């Protein structure tokens, strides 16, 4: 039986303009022993009723825009890629608040 052939390649998104862009300004993270779930929400300005409910319940319900599940093996590379992009953004925007906000 012949040995398996090894091929090096780069994966790139196909036609990224075809996928809808979804705005999110909040991400909740959960995990199992096997995967990581990123739940992206859009937190909108709160109404008076929302404020009253938040005051008593100490929670605000935000509409979910997307829920992405990734295998744990992907997380270290995802983390490194996000850190690299934040480093580049900070270099391109000296004195900005990139990366200085709270972590949720």
Overall 3D shape: extended
Beta-strand residue percentage: 15-25%
Oligomeric state of the chains present here: single chain
Biggest sheet features: 3 strands, antiparallel
What is the number of helices? Answer: 2
H and E order:
EEHEH
Strand order of the largest sheet: 1-2-3
Classification by helices and strands: alpha+beta
Low-confidence stretches: none
Percent of residues in helices comes to 25-40%
Distance between termini? 52 Å
The tally of beta strands, per DSSP, is 3
Overall mean pLDDT: 88
Radius of gyration: 19 Å
List keywords for this structure.
alpha+beta, 2 helices, 3 strands, 3-stranded antiparallel β-sheet, about 100 residues, extended
Task: Give an overview in words.
With 104 residues, this protein is an alpha+beta fold. It has a domain at 21-92. Helices cover 27% and strands 20% of the residues. The protein has 2 helices and 3 strands. It has a 3-stranded antiparallel β-sheet with strand order 1-2-3, with no helix packed on it. Strand 1 (26-31) and strand 2 (35-41) form a beta hairpin. It is extended. The termini are far apart.
Quickly describe the structure.
It is built from two helices and three strands; from the N terminus they run E-E-H-E-H. It is of the alpha+beta class and 104 residues long.
SSE layout:
Layout: E1 26-31, E2 35-41, H1 48-57, E3 64-71, H2 75-92
Antiparallel strand pairs: 1-2, 2-3
């Amino acid at each position: 039986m012949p040995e398996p052939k090894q091929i090096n390649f780069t994966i790139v998104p196909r036609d990224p303009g075809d996928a809808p862009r979804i705005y999110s300004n909040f991400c909740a993270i959960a995990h199992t022993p096997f995967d990581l779930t990123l739940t992206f929400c859009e937190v909108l300005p709160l109404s008076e009723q929302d404020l009253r409910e938040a005051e008593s319940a100490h929670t605000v319900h935000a509409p979910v825009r997307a829920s992405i599940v990734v295998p744990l093996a992907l997380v270290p590379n995802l983390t490194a890629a996000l850190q690299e992009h934040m480093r580049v953004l900070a270099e391109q925007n000296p004195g900005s608040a990139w990366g200085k906000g709270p972590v949720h």
